[in-house]
Amino acid sequence: MKMSESQKVKIKARNVTVHYGEARALHGIDLDLNANEVTALIGPSGCGKSTFLRCINRMNDVIDGCRVGGTVSIDEQNIYSDAVDVVELRARVGMVFQKPNPFPKSIYDNVAYGPRIHGMAPSRSELDHIVETSLKRAGLWDEVKDRLSASGTSLSGGQQQRLCIARAIAVNPDIVLMDEPCSALDPIATAVIEELMEELRRDYTIVIVTHSMQQAARISQRTAYFHLGDLVEHGQTQAIFTNPENQQTEAYISGKIG
Amino acid sequence: MTDYSDPDFRAARLKKRYQAEKRFRAYGMAAIITAGLILVFLLGSIIYSSLPAFSHHQVRLDINISEDYVVADAPEEGNYLGLVRAALRDHFPQVTGRRDKRALYKILSIGASDAVEDRVKNDPRLIGTQISLYVPLSDDIDLMLKGLIDRNLPESDRIVSDRDLAFVDKLAEENRIERKFAFALFTNGDSREPEMAGIKGALAGSLWTLLVTLIVSFPLGVLAAIYLEEVAPKNRFTALIEVNINNLAAVPSIVYGLLGLAVFINFFHLPRSAPLVGGLVLALMTLPRIIIPTRAAFAAIPPSIREAALGVGASRTQVIMHHVLPLAMPGILTGTIIGLAQAAGETAPLLMIGMMAFIVDVPTEVTAKATVLPAQIYMWANNPERAFVARTSAGIVVLLTLLLVVNAAAIYFRRRFEKRW
Fold it and tell me: Does residue A119 lie within any of the structural domains?
């Protein structure tokens, strides 16, 4: 594995805590995520991996009663400082959700929405270009190029999820967060999306939450194991899956708990 | 112990279950049929009793527009009543006594002279010529001709005297009487004479009032709902506001009328009996009825859509304006239109601000004196003349038609804005 070319740390989390009301969901997470790598966050349900993911684009901000402590830095800039505008942040950190959630608009408008609101395409032809390249990179172009005006919700589940990926990358983010993107898809659609992630890794930093050990092993370079709001272990995926240091990790990935 | 594996026992249970389902369906059907029959009976009886109001008997008179009565220089100062009476007298040369003449005049409606006046004013060249014109008969003669007053009763028991009958029979023999569509019902304002009383004033009053209600309550209601549902933090203060809004929806409507009287008329000195004040009062009443369904419509939008929009970097306002509001629009419009329909049928709050009033002129602005449809219906129902019975039902038909149109609009807009997931 070529390590040297992409060892730059993209996201640096230090002592990240999250409270939902009185309940503490994350207890001080320290984690570095490298650029141009896929990092998989694994762990049993309720362990805080999705919560951590949502700290990276401040999606927790919109939840009532949710407080985030500590710092998360992207390219050495703390995204929780007052100087950072949350809307701009989310344009730099795209997100794909567990359930495909295309807007009830046309396929074209789904992809064009982000570029439009950020004023990225002053002319129609530029917008067309962005839509086309985004759909191509999401591997959906050939399937939908003849029906861009069809509703995004008319697509199949796997296609919808790729449409959501196209929508996320249309605003040209640095980082793409994926929250169990394949959990609602069949194995064939999952395989397509996994291939896509390998492809996208060249340009983006990808953080994915997954419940599938095999998926984490297949697609990620690094893996972080969460348990009950703590980061138990993280490192090279190969190392974690073949030779975990922590007993809990071993129990989880070998199917004894979780 | 029951043996659950016994086929007979299972068959019996199955049969019981099917019977229970059949019974349940039958109860539902019975409920629907009962409700349907009641509705058909209600509508049927109202429409049936309104039918006489839509037509009126008119008599064709040969009117000699002599310059003794009206001069070309000033047609508005003409003595049209005299003209019509003279024309009627010409048909009955044998009537000479003052008392007989007066009885003769009474078979015509007061509106008869208006018909001539309108005709001459439209075309002053008619002065000096003779025209043949249909003019309305009085309400009692009309009812008698429609068969609603029995002419075979002894004279002392009916409102139309034998002398009147003789006049009418003579005109009928000459083929001068015809039953015509009662345009007056739709083109006139209110009147003391049933055959001249029209719904137009009340309809215009209702529409002006509803316009004010819509302009005030729609933006206020939708903005309040958006703020409460999408922006405001969920704390004790917003919970208090929410409870209050729900309570306001249950406040008796006459209380809003008292409030309107105290605030809009006594404090702000807005004009009494005006659609402006009526609309404001109804807007207060409608506000909670818009806020509640609008909030429900917002709450029904799946959070995944909000997350999707936030995820590509939409601001809170953009999420609301681009995604949530368009998707909630059908629900908002339905709530608004149902609120307006309720307001359209409301009488009690308008009692307090003087919109239950006899107003002849058709209002042309929001500060003009006006009444509204339900108030008009009530006032007609209170009038002693028998012809107002049919007028009252006709007023109800017009009000129901208005509500039907409003509800049809609700369905149209809902279909139009509805999007499939």
Answer: yes
Buried-exposed string A94-125: b where 16+ CB fall within 10 A, e elsewhere: bbbbbbbbbbbbbbbbbbbbbbbbbebbeeee
Identify whether residues B261 and B370 lie together within a single domain: yes
Minimal Cα–Cα distance from B261 to chain A, Å?
A: 42
Mean pLDDT of B347-367: 90
Domain boundary among B180, B208, B223: B180
Tell me what pLDDT residue A2 has: 42
Output the CA–CA distances (angstroms, integers) from residue A115 to A60, A201, B309, B313, in the order listed: 23, 21, 12, 10
Residue A2 counted as domain residue:
no
Q: Where residue A132 sits, what CATH number does that domain have?
A: 3.40.50.300
Asked whether residue B231 falls in the same domain as residue B324, the answer is yes
Q: Name the 3-class secondary structure at B147.
A: coil
- Cβ separation of A102 and B308 shorter than 8 Å? yes
Considering the domain boundaries, does residue B225 fall inside one? yes
Residue range of the domain that includes B107:
57-180
> What is the model's pTM?
0.83
Q: Is B322 on the interface with A (CB under 8 A)?
A: yes
Give me the sign of the Cα torsion angle B277, B279, B285, B291.
Answer: negative
In a domain, A258, yes or no: no
Among B129, B148, B180, where does a domain finish? B180
Q: Which residues contact B28 (CB under 8 A, 6 or more apart)?
A: none
Ramachandran sector of residue B4 (left: φ over 0; alpha: ψ -120 to 50; beta: rest): alpha
Say if CB B294 and CB B331 are below 8 A apart.
yes
Q: In this structure, are B210 and B140 located in the same domain?
A: no
Overall domain count for chain B: 2
Q: Any idea what the CATH number is for the domain that residue B276 is in?
A: 1.10.3720.10
Q: What total of structural domains would you count in chain A?
A: 1
Average pLDDT over residues A33-44: 92
B200 band by pLDDT with thresholds 50, 70 and 90: very high
Phi/psi at B57 (5° precision): -85, 135
User: Are the beta carbons of A113 and B327 separated by less than 8 Å?
Assistant: no
This complex has an ipTM of 0.88
Residue B80 CB-density burial (10 A; 0-12 exposed, 13-18 middle, 19+ buried): buried
The 10s digit of each residue's pLDDT in B51-88 is 999 999 999 999 888 888 888 788 888 888 888 999 99
- A84 contacts in chain B (CB < 8 Å): none
Provide the domain limits for residue A159: 8-253
Mean pLDDT of chain B: 90
Q: Does B372 touch chain A (CB under 8 A)?
A: no
**Cβ contact, residue pair A103, B314, below 8 Å:** no
